[in-house]
Amino acid sequence: MSNQEDRLKTLIGHAKEYGFVFPSSEIYDGLSATYDYGPYGVELKNNIRRYWWEAMTKLNENIVGLDAAIFMHPLTWKASGHVDAFNDPLIDNKDSKKRYRADVLLEEHIAKYEDKINKEVEKGRKRFAESFDEAQFRATNPNVKRSQDRIDAVEGRMKAALEANDLEALRQLIIDEEIKCPISGTANWTEVRQFNLMFATELGSVSGESSTIYLRPETAQGIFVNFLNVQKSARMKIPFGIAQTGKAFRNEIVARQFVFRMREFEQMEMQFFVKPGTEMQWYESWKAKRIAWHKALGITGEHYRFHDHIKLAHYANAACDIEFKFPMGFKELAGIHSRTDFDLSNHEKLSGKKLRYFDTETNESYVPYVVETSIGLDRMFLAVLSAAYEEEQIPAKDGSTEEGGVRTVLRIPAPLAPVKVAVLPLIKKDGLPEKARAIIDTLKLEHNCQYDEKDSIGKRYRRQDAIGTPYCITVDHETLKDGAVTIRERDSMAQERVPIEHLGRIVGDMVDLRGLLRKL
Ligand code: GAP
Q1: Which ligand 1 atom sits closest to the C-alpha of 261?
Q2: Above pLDDT 70, what percent of the chain?
Q3: Which of 142, 245, 339, 376 is the most exposed place for a label (fewest CB within 10 A)?
Q4: How far apart are CA 354 and CA 74, in angstroms?
């Protein structure tokens, strides 16, 4: 098993053991690519959603919210292009009978060349130390140049094949690059076929007829069809945005890698309506705003990179991903897409209703262009969890309440942590439990608190570390006399004696979501 697979497996095990994520319907052996969020998972997920929602709707006076239905009129998906073009190119290996996305096989192949380049760069960095000039090294090192030429050649042919919808060219590229099935190790491939990703179901109508409807594959269309309702009712002026979070469904073929690629998942999308011709300026502005939202969490910058799309989706004139360094390597976390007037114009055509904005300053009426930001909530959850997970060796110290050995700690950004404060009576008697519960009563309206009296203090600290609780408060016999407690911080494990009345401020300063929002 590779190191990457090991890390992902460890994370999946931890997420299950500590109540973050369970396989769906596990008692029936689970349902592939579907997961349930447990007690701590749902808190973390809610906190991420709230961070996104407040960053969109509180910090931007020209962005408002919406919660549209999952089911939509079937013509929605004809207009959006999903019925005709929301396909994945699939290829099967005849020996292992395993099915793959042809474009993903090629992207993983390209990633191997990128890994080679990164290794060369790291070697160079070590060799030249202080005098290392990365840009110059990348431009001149023969090994790096050779790998980069290969990447450019494969990307060029892949882009041409995808744009021309030339499935035979895609297959030929896989064969020319000698890409093998990871299971059988052979290159015995079938032809490439297109497969539509939408889940269809039947809607019973009053007359007894039924018609095919789809589970939405993106939340965005609920925003487009409501564009005028929102603009008029909330008296919005262009440029303005509509934000929405909610479930989306895709019949993914290669559904694996935990909550990274699921068949039922949650999106957080914002459609920003702009005057035609200004979309590139807004596209750049939203790229900058979105990366700032990620970086405010304090996860180091080396976890992120932008990746321009090789093949633009059927609706876009510019598009990029924010990629994140997941346990399985750099992968798409979020997208920023300039969608032109594709969606609104097509909804106009199929519905016969005008979806135009009337600009009272210029007396013009036009179909706005749209810049979209889209992020998978589950992928963001995995990003936060994987960056937070650490196994740390700590020495045993005499007289310390910390136990020596390896501790597993989730360094989740404090405002996103599922539980903010654990209050722990040193022992289960002498009035300490009552005092601990009284402290919780003063904090619980502001913060998610937990009470724990079982096992030694050291063991209780470990349990809180494992779910990422930023603060533990210990109540001891002295507390009853001096009204002070020991507060222990998760990351540094530093302990300090503080008066009970200071707790609200100390904890509040660190865990308040507003601290994150202020950085934006
Ligand atoms: N409205 C545009 C749109 O849906 P997308 O790139 O197909 O664009 C947006 O999806 C985001 O949704 C992705 O960046 C990813 O975070 C998330 N996403 C897409 N498919 C997913 C899946 N099968 N499982 C989990 N998240 C997914």
Answers
A1: 24
A2: 98
A3: 142
A4: 19
**Measuring CA to CA, how many Å separate 320 from each of 49, 284, 288?**
22, 10, 12
Do 213 and 200 form a contact (C-beta atoms < 8 A)? yes
Whether 341 is in the pocket of ligand 1, judged by its Cβ within 6 Å, is: no
- The two three-digit tokens of residue 69, written as one number: 């239905």
Query: Residues 6 or more apart from 519 whose CB is under 8 A from it?
Result: 292, 296
pLDDT of 212:
86
Q: How many CB atoms lie within 10 A of CB 119?
A: 13
**What tokens does 511 get?**
């865990």
Hey, how many other C-beta atoms are within 10 angstroms of the C-beta on 64? 17
Mean pLDDT of the chain: 93
* Least confident stretch, 39-43, 76-80, 255-259, 320-324: 255-259
pLDDT single digits (tens) 344-353: 999 999 999 9
402 lines ligand 1 (CB under 6 A): no
* Tokens standing for residue 351: 């519905």
- 388 pocket-lining for ligand 1 (C-beta < 6 Å): no
Contact 189, 174 (CB under 8 A): yes
Global confidence as pTM: 0.88
Would you say the C-alpha torsion 343, 345, 349, 354 has a positive or negative sign?
A: positive
Contact criterion met (CB below 8 Å) for 176 and 154: no
pLDDT digits (tens, 9 = 90+) for 401-414: 777 789 999 999 99
Among 379, 380, 382, 384, which is best to mutate for testing ligand 1, by the most ligand atoms less than 8 A from CB?
379
Q: How far apart are CA 96 and CA 463, in angstroms?
A: 43
* Interatomic CA distance for residues 211 and 202, integer angstroms: 6
Residue with token string 């608190």: 449
Name the closest-CA residue to atom 21, ligand 1: 261
| Assigned token pair, 307 | 């990746």
* CB of 452 closer than 6 angstroms to any ligand 1 atom: no
Give the Å distance between the CA of 282 and the centre of ligand 1: 21
290 Cβ closer than 6 Å to some ligand 1 atom: no
241's tokens: 């945005």
Q: Is 37 left (phi over 0), alpha (psi -120 to 50) or beta?
A: beta
Three-point CA angle 411, 428, 479, nearest 5°: 75
